[in-house]
Structures are given as structure tokens and as C-alpha cells.
């Protein structure tokens, strides 16, 4: 266990104000997330977290399903902070106007938890009264009345993210062979079968794009350098846009016929070049497959 403070964020607020989006955002920021834990269980849960020594950030969603325990939340947090200086707890309260909440419930045709057999507006008003003490003690209040889910996500990243995390945005680069099928999770697919194929060189046939002779063969082709210059510029141009739209992961798939030579070399170069600006993982899915094919063009 290090001396670094463990961070606990209680996510609460009006039903329909965006707690699900908030929880997903905290997960992308690397928080250990638990939904709907009764505050009475918080001390035991936190004891287990501290004993594990591996969890440093926790986000707990507490909503009206736990309303019988709401009067205990503030006491629990006070006791936790006094009993353990190594814990830093905060409350994030998500709020929305009554009119917008009623509209959202009408659109989804759901019943408000405090108005199962009555008017939605009455349930909203009861809930607001119930949560008033929690709201007044919250360190952060976000009004989602006019926010889109993406904007709420960005606000949470800005408030609770650490410098350099960039919302934990990362890039997955995958090389593959078309003969084995496209990666089903690919966001961007580039076919590099138009490049000269090292497979037809007897000295390179049984090597892969991870071997320097094959890598050099692919990269020394004039067509390769011209193509790569355009493609890497395109990737650098679109990456910030994906981040702005709230994507946490982008998968770039580079394919050739068998997934062993051209795609491997190009994918590896892309991964190496993007590493300067992003967290990048590279996988060569079919690099070790050696099934013969009639047409290797």
C-alpha cells in the first residue's frame, strides 16, 4: 500500500439526470465502479478495498433504490474521512430541471420510483425534497438539463480525470489477413493488398513483417511511402475528433491477404508513430498462420 490517497466519489442525484452515463465515464477513467450500494455497507466495502491494496479510485452510484439509507450517507463519509486520512471522499450530484425530468420519463414511458402509481411530476418533487440535504453537501453539482451524454462525459473527464489520462483514450492497431475475415471490432479498416507482396520473394516468404528484411522490403517501395504519408496524416487528423465525441478506444485494422507481411509491417509502423501522442496497443492477429491459398495477389 502506498501513501497516495484513495479516491472515493459518491455519484448521486435526481433519477433520470444521467447517473448511468456518469458511471460509464468513471469506468473509462479507471475507477472501480459499484452501482446501488447501500451506504450502510460502505465501511465494510471500503475496508476490503484498503486491504486489497490494488484499488486507488472508487465510484459508487447511490440512488433512490437506496433511499432508506440516504440519511446515513453524510455520517458515513464523515466517519470514513476521520477514521482514515488516506481516504479522499467527494459527492457528485447530478441535477436536472423538473420539466426536463418529466419529459425524459414521458419519452421512456418509465415510472418514477416515488410515483409508481401517481404523476411523474409529484415523484420528481418528492425526490428533490428528499435529496436537498445531499445536494447542499455535494462538492460537485452538474446540471444536465441541456447537456448531451457526450457533454456530460466530457465534464466528468475534465473534473475527475488526471493530467495525461485524456479520458483513458487509447488506440488499438490490428494487422489481419482478409482470408481469415475482418476484425469485428474495427473502426477504421485499410486494405494494403495493393502494395508489392514480399510473399513472392523466396527469401522473405517464411518471414513476417516483424522481421527487418520484410519490413524494409515493404517500406522501401515508393508506393508505400506515398501511401503511408497520406494515411498517417489522416489518422492524426481524425483522432482528436474521436476523442471529442467521447470515444474511449479506436481500433485501426490493417489487412493484406494472409496477415503476415504487408499488414504487419504497416500496422507496426503506425503503432510506433502514434505512440508519441496516444496510448497504443498493437496486435498481429494472423501473423503465425501459414495456411496456403491459391491466389496470393
Can you offer a commentary on this structure?
- With 297 residues, this protein is of the alpha/beta class.
- The chain folds into 2 domains: 6-166, Rossmann fold, CATH 3.40.50.300; 169-284, no CATH class.
- The protein is 40% helix and 19% strand.
- It is built from 9 helices and 9 strands.
- The chain has a 5-stranded parallel sheet, sandwiched between helices. It has a 4-stranded parallel sheet with strand order 7-8-6-9, covered by helices on one side.
- α1 (19-28) packs across α6 (149-160), α4 crosses α5 and α7 (212-219) packs across α9 (262-274).
- The longest helix has 23 residues, at 222-244.
- The protein is elongated, with a radius of gyration of 26 Å.
- The termini are far apart.
A few lines on this structure:
40% of the residues lie in helices and 19% in strands. It is of the alpha/beta class. The chain has two domains: 6-166, Rossmann fold (3-Layer(aba) Sandwich), CATH 3.40.50; 169-284, no CATH class.
Amino acid at each position: 500500500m502506498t501513501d497516495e490517497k484513495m479516491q472515493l466519489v459518491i455519484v448521486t442525484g435526481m433519477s433520470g439526470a444521467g447517473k448511468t452515463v456518469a458511471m460509464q465515464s468513471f469506468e473509462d477513467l479507471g475507477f472501480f465502479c459499484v452501482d446501488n450500494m447501500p451506504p450502510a455497507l460502505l465501511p465494510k466495502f471500503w475496508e476490503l478495498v484498503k486491504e486489497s491494496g490494488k484499488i486507488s479510485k472508487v465510484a459508487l452510484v447511490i440512488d433512490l433504490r437506496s433511499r432508506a439509507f440516504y440519511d446515513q450517507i453524510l455520517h458515513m463519509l464523515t466517519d470514513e474521512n476521520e477514521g482514515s486520512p488516506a481516504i479522499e471522499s467527494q459527492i457528485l450530484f447530478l441535477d436536472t430541471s423538473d420539466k426536463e425530468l418529466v419529459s425524459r420519463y414521458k419519452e421512456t414511458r418509465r415510472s418514477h420510483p416515488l410515483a409508481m402509481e401517481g404523476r411523474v411530476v409529484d415523484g420528481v418533487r418528492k425526490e428533490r425534497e428528499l435529496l436537498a440535504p445531499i445536494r447542499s453537501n455535494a462538492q460537485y453539482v452538474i446540471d444536465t438539463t441541456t447537456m448531451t451524454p457526450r457533454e456530460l462525459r466530457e465534464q466528468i473527464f475534465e473534473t475527475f480525470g488526471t493530467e495525461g489520462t485524456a479520458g483513458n483514450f487509447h488506440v488499438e492497431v490490428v494487422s489481419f489477413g482478409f482470408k481469415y475475415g475482418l476484425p469485428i471490432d474495427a473502426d477504421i479498416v485499410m486494405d494494403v493488398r495493393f502494395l508489392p507482396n514480399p510473399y513472392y520473394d523466396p527469401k522473405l516468404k517464411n518471414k513476417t513483417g516483424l522481421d527487418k528484411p520484410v519490413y524494409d522490403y515493404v517500406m522501401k517501395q515508393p508506393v508505400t511511402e506515398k501511401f503511408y504519408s497520406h494515411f498517417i496524416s489522416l489518422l492524426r487528423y481524425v483522432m482528436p475528433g474521436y476523442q471529442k465525441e467521447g470515444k474511449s478506444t479506436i481500433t485501426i485494422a490493417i489487412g493484406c491477404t494472409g496477415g503476415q507481411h504487408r499488414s504487419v509491417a504497416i500496422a507496426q509502423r503506425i503503432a510506433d508513430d502514434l505512440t508519441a501522442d496516444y496510448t497504443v496497443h498493437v496486435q498481429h492477429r494472423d501473423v503465425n498462420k501459414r495456411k496456403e491459398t491459391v491466389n496470393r495477389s
